[in-house]
Amino acid sequence: MALDAGGAAPGTSGFEYAPAPESRAVARIQSSYGLFIGGAFVESIDGGTFKTVSPSSEEVLAEVTAAGPLDVAAAVAAARAAFEGPWGTMPGRERAKYLYRIARLIQERSRELAVVETLDNGKPIRESRDVDVPLAAAHFFYYAGWADKLDHAGFGPSPRALGVAGQVIPWNFPLLMAAWKLAPALATGNTCVLKPAETTPLSALVLADILQQAGLPDGVVNILTGDGTTGAALVAHDGVDKVAFTGSTEVGRRIAESVAGTHKHLTLELGGKAANIVFADAALDQAVEGIVNGIFFNQGHVCCAGSRLLVEESVAATVVAMLKRRLGTLRLGDPMDKNTDIGAINSPEQLGRIVALVDAGENEGAERWSPPCALPEKGWWFPPTVFTDVSPAHRIAREEIFGPVLSVLTFRTPDEAVEKANNTTYGLSAGVWTEKGSRILSMASRLRAGVVWANTFNRFDPASPFGGFKESGFGREGGRQGLGAYLDV
Amino acid sequence: MSEPRLEVKKTSKLFIGGAFPRSESGRSYVVSSAAGEFLCNAAWASRKDVRDAVVAARGAQPRWSTATAYNRGQVLYRVAELLEARRGQFVHEVRAAEGATARSAAAQVDAAIDRWVWYAGWSDKLAQVAGSSNPVAGPYFNFSVPEPTGVIGIVAPTDSALLGLVSVVAPVLAAGNTVVVLADEQRPIPAVSLTEVLATADVPAGVVNLLTGPADELVPVLAAHRDVDGLDLAGAEPVLAAAAEASGATNIKRISRGVAPGHDWRRDPGTARLLRFVETKTVWHPIGS
User: Fold this and answer.
1) For the domain that residue B46 is a member of, what is the CATH number?
2) Does a structural domain hold residue A10?
3) Given CB atoms, is B68 within the 8 Å cutoff of chain A?
4) Does B19 reside within a domain?
5) Which of A174, A234, A376, B209 could form a disulfide with B53 if both were Cys (CB 3.0 to 4.6 A apart)?
6) Which ipTM did the prediction report?
7) Which long-range contacts (CB under 8 A, 24 or more apart) does A257-261 make?
8) What is the pLDDT of residues A90-117, one digit of tens each?
9) Is residue A283 included in any domain, yes or no?
10) Which residues on chain B are in Cβ contact (under 8 Å) with A421?
11) B127 touching A, CB under 8 A?
12) Interface of A with B in 54-113 (CB under 8 A)
């Protein structure tokens, strides 16, 4: 696979790197996978199959099952039986030990998981190796410790589990989102039916194997691959007591409508259009790194991405120039190469959405710029892109692009920065760059966002609650607060 | 012996932005006692009144949400003080509205007064109980604080005209939200009188707005309003509540579902309603060397 366009692309850096691809042998991807129901991989009752493709090469990685309505019913029944059986009656300290085991097994198989994730998702191996997989293990380890301490978690004495959780996750952090969903649900004593994204099913299937190795009782976690229709059937199933969804606000709305009037509990982690606010007094070199990490991390496929750069007018020209220089050194290409910064766009559909919004940005009069950057011939790619002369009314300043596209706006006063930052229907995250601690805290208190990063961006930790204000959803994942999503409180 | 004297009756009005308008629609409807006697013509709020109330609640949001927790606590405690002073009036109104015995009505009014006291004390403790400092792996002071969701639409319970109403409104206010409340359609008088208490209790104008009128006409308007951030459907009957919940999905409203009929509002309320309309904000503050 000669995808190392990054070697030719960097332009201004002057460095040439020899290819340094990670071996894919460790991935052990099977040619086909069934559904994970009741502790075993089983064939579908009424579903079909589909192929999962590597976004960087368009190579078919495996054939995967698309679960049908009867499969959903079987998985929910298995989860119900486990909830009413071994899992529901198990002491918290025993549940905790299963979660610790899972955390350890993820660590043991971290290289395999990283390779599978990168092949299936298209993200750089450096990210799956250093971010996705370690954070997934950490999440299980963190929530393991809560399982036998729920009486002390601030939800009253003996808080109760909800029952069967139906969990639908996105393709941008497949394994990590599975961990964010499963770990708190299991720690609180629920059982789960997890539906990974259509384009990234493989790491969840490796996780199923890990759950088997951990000896997790049958049916405690069931994993159903499939597309949106599988997810919709799961969400709509009467036997589900809790729905947890991470994905677009559009789908989140439909889910909220579908659970209306039912007994189901709901948490939603939806889209974002985060402002990354740079004050003139910020350490600008550090801020530029943060801007890059904020929007180009994971190809911008991040709901909390810092997609709107708000930079104080007096340093705007300097910051944009520094940013462009830095983008010239980013390496786009083979995600399996350890030197790659920017991987592939996850699917042709997503690429289409990015292209459409970028075209709208140009048509509405914003100034588009990308570094010289050769794109590989196969696979789906989009160069890092910066728009200047962006007005708050432009679509690229309002709509979630979910790609490596940054819109730059300016401000003169903190009040104006707050007003522009909050001028969105979203409210997932925000960034503030300044050397002044008091300003960090005053900005943080005025920004309507669930996570505010100061002098950093896109940083995650299992102890740190994550989730949105406004149309970015409700409920939290991570931290003590994350337990509340799976308890009857 | 005094001369026989004709009672001066009170006009029942709405409460919007600190003022007491009649409905802009000019409509009213008859409110009767549990025994079927005429009590008053209540204002029949319109779609426009709902919108005006939301505007007032949004306008009051910055001041109320950024008031110190101590200040909010004192304002809510002041409500209890004034309610206590008008205890006899409310006992009378609850009796008329619900057909309760004098003893039961008095118990409900007492519980309602005590509920304001309970939530007044919560306003400056909520962040300590619901917030946290989070031990992240990295040089950051990471902390989480609960913040008010914003403007909350409340459909008051239909089985408890004062205690039920206070039980759903006070916790939402204690957390820093502003509210648009739809009173129990058939028993609005204790709610209307409560607004007169709120108006003189230092509750800033617009923090609480109260509408009277038919639920099936007004709840859908409230539920579809894009500047309402959350809905408490405590008193909405199931079909209406389900439709409101679905409609609220338009702007991802936070939903608190209906309360089962026969709910005993005198029970210890716990913290559930206090935490229902708060958003956790997490801040990563750098730690320098």
Assistant:
1) 3.40.605.10
2) no
3) no
4) no
5) B209
6) 0.95
7) A257/B246, A257/B249, A258/A232, A259/A235, A260/B242, A260/B243, A260/B245, A260/B246, A260/B248, A260/B249, A260/B255, A261/B238, A261/B239, A261/B241, A261/B242, A261/B243, A261/B245, A261/B246
8) 999 999 999 999 999 999 999 999 999 9
9) yes
10) none
11) no
12) none
